[in-house]
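Note to self: the last two entries modelled the partners one at a time, which told us nothing about the interface. This time every component goes in together.
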Amino acid sequence: MRAPTIPPKLKTPTTATYYLLPTTSYLLPTTYYLLPPIPPPKTDAQQQTWVNILHYLRNHILPSFVLQLSSSSRFMKRIFVLGLLILLLGQLWAQKYTISGFVTDAMSGEKLISARVFDPDRKVGAITNNYGFYSITTEGGMVAVNCSYVGFKPFNTAFELTGDTTINIDLSSDGVEMETVEINDKKDIAENTQMSTIDVPIEIIKKIPALMGEVDVIKALQLLPGVQSGNEGSSGFYVRGGGPDQNLILLDGVPIYSISHLFGFFSVFPADAISNVSLIKGGFPARYGGRLSSVIDISLKDGNMKKWHGEGSVGIIASKLTVEGPIWKDKTSVMISARRTYLDILAQPLILAASKGHTNAGYYFYDAVGKINHKFNDQNRLYFSFYGGNDQAYLRDKQNYEYQGDSYESKTSFKLGWGNKIAALRWNHLFSDKLFANFAATYSTFRFKVGIDQSDAQTANGQTTTNRFALGYDSGIRDWNARFDFDWYAKPSHFVRFGGYGINHKYTPGVSNFIIEGPGYSLDTILGSKSITANEMGLYIEDDFKLGSRQKLNLGLHGSAFLVEGKLYKSLQPRVSYRLMIDENWAAKASFTTMYQYVHLLTNTNVGLPTDLWVPSTKSIKPQSAIQGAAGIARSFKDQGLEFSIEGYYKYMTGLVEYKEGASFIPERNDWQEKIVQGNGWAYGAEFFLQKKFGKTTGWVGYTLSWNKRQFTQLNNGEIYPYKYDRRNDASFVLTHEFSKKVDVGLVWVFGTGNALTLPISSYQGTILSQNNPYGYSNTVDQVGTRNGYRMHPYHRLDLSVNLNKEHKRWTRTWSFSVYNAYSRSNPYFLFFDYDPRTSTRVLKQVSLFPIIPSVAYRFKF
Amino acid sequence: MKNHLLSLIVIAVLVFVGCKPQIVEIDLPPHDPALVVNCVFSPDSVWHAHVTASQGIQVADAPKAVENATVVIFENGAVVETLVHIVDGIYTAQNGTRPQVGHTYTIEASAPGYAKASGTDYVPVTVIPYGMEWRDSIAYNQFQGYNGEFSFKIDDPAGEENFYLLGVYQLDTFFDGTDTLYFVDDIYVEAFDPALESDFWSGDQRFNDGTFDGTSRTIRVQLSSDQHALPTTLFFGLSSISKSYYLYVKSMSVYSQNEGNPLSEPTRVYSNMTPGAGIMAGYSTVYALLP
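The predicted structure of the combined assembly is written out below.
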């Protein structure tokens, strides 16, 4: 055996050992085959990877095979060795190492989600996950690692890669001018396999003009193509033809059921406490499930690990304050944010004065959100986050009077309230530099309650008699959820995610408590539907992998099951997303997804109130399902910082629910299941989107052309009809511009085809024959037209804002002036019929809620 | 800071004053009037129908009667009766013919300026109630006055959908100074029988045989009167009604309940007339006076 020689070009200063495998020369051109170094096996049993297996193969199995074959025929020996080489060289020749770590904000220690870490020469890279973790596996040798994130100085380094390496990157935003930021943005729209996904930087959201000065994440999302708002000012949103229940809204990974404050005019998410907002409208990765139409993934700030900071605002209707900082520097941080309205406080003196002290009434809402995170070490991190929010309207009236010598006391109490509470405990664990895990236990609940309690007491001759009437209504949903998620950076070309979850749901779909009490009698009864408990579970796996240098595929499978009332529903939901880079900037994309949803929202088509009921699939109510196909092109104009995409989509939905004609949420003898019908829906259209995310001027132009239809056997005579939010044209123009550090302005213009609604179109003579109505005369009947056959006037609106910023030594302040509906367009909110005595006719009237509304807010940051 | 807060409060008040909803009139789409034919028929009475015209939703007056229509009843394509106009759009059989149980009829109405309207229905076979019992004065209740209980049995025909209309009334009297006159008056009915579609009502109540198809069924209801005592005589009627009649009555009931309620879904009143609106519905009734 000749002495091994190492080709000079492969010599490196590494201390790792090269393993040489001797063989003969006439099958392959060189005598010795150099095997790249393999790091020594790791001692931690949890970190055993395929590298360890290769060590075992090479050191024990392979030599013994070679020895055994020495006595075989030369031909067989060569064939066998060649086969082994082919098998092993694929793994061993290009020996690869892993660079992994976390990307954080150097100033705050906050994780940076979707930051881009890449080697520009080798064209390999990764995007940080929701916990700021990345992992890149590449061949040894000189590597360059660049990291970029909008608003931060890019990080660049180069080094000799000789083994698995951890690089935790702290990006600094100090002194960064937006125009000079590296253009390589996070999640380049063209490069990303995922389509139908939009990230909106929270800083842009804060600059957009806001209704009454209240920055609102959901209202910003409503301005995106494919997303339609409900009524004027409403926080409800409808994605690609889906209903409001078909949006999976995650706050730190926890589903939140009601996102509305003040009957929908504001959403529940405090912008100051949010670090990242992402909207997925189609091409859903397999890790998401349970809703048909969209995923809104909102991440709370972790809390500053370095210094204490705060920000807040005083607005027309509410004030808020967010404080964050380290409890234990670089180890434990906390973030707390709270908001409360003061309409009630402002109005109370007026109400008391008007009622001469008899009546006290008001309305308020509040939010409180917080997060604590503790970093045990680089491998382990624990998070606890919570949210609590509530809306309360109340009226209390008490009157005393005397009449003919008797004294009377009358008391009335009315309460209306709804709110969410969520909590999440999460543990991040790094099993290896390629295997990241998150384990979570979460709780989420939504309750709606309304009640009236009235009593009248009469005192005569020293004796008091009291009559009382009380009515209460209660509905809600409660979830306990446990889940695990693994991110496995298996190979440079494969990024695998897998996980599972189990959810225990409890639905309370509307219960009324009715009480009547008086002298000698008492009635206390409950009407409505019983609570239903259900268990949901699921598993998923997805692989984001490269097919050559231009193509990427994301293949996934989501399996779920739902056990309710002894009935088991199961589903397998394949997901496919494909991307082809046409050139460096242009990409063509396509996706196909199937989705299942076991929960339904019974909502009245006329109003958007918290009276909407969350109900499960049951023995008789089937789950909803959807298939969606989408295709489009995307382009990055990196020099200009622009992104552009056009997508077409088609979605078919089954198992949709609607109330039967004439039904409402008010509890009756019948169970809710008897009030609803199920049917199908179609939505298709095209979306155009041009976005500029950074620079002095930011914003986007969005346009959606869409059709949205429904068909229910028992509605509209079984004929197809437009969905209420079928909107043929929907456009938005959003612009923010920073003139200087002291002044920035914002502009929003929106246009949408009018909402569809059902109106009576004529009236006619009805008849009811009964024993005491032998001629069958009846009142005039209004003949209802085709369901959603009438269109309200189109909606359009211009909002403007100016922010005046001033930096003080220790803090900065901003006066934010905004004008909502600048040209005071009378946009339709709802329509109703009225009687005009002058002409003795009925007239249709349109109610417009918001004329031009100026507002001002004072914001501060320290 | 105090000045800032004061400014905010002033602006807040101004904003909410400015938020008063604006109300404007909207143009309504024009409406082409159509014939509306209401023909509810049973073997107990001669053919009659009420013909009116639909009108635009903006018209607040009562619908206008159509007095120059041609209204014809057919059975299997053959003319059974041509109805003649009596008054206010009411047409009746000039030959005194009556519908027959089990027969299917079609009505056609036409008038100048309107499209011809037609509808078809049948007279269901009468289901005879039996075992009727009437027990009064169960207890005195502060809310409901004197209570009584009424029950009867039916043998529901098997293998077909059957629909019923139950009417329970009190026979009341009125002295006009000369004579004592009898009239049928409402009585309050309470029933928690799952076969019935409402817990409380007065007048008629519909039900179907969905839960007892082809079986003998006892229907039991509790009665109370707004009078000082329960009536001495009950007027009871059980109608076997067609499916069209059932759907019409049901939708009309929901429509009436939801009229003016913004929290309910829009209600479409059932019609089997094409085109236009109205109803062609057959029924047959058994009446009884108790005791």
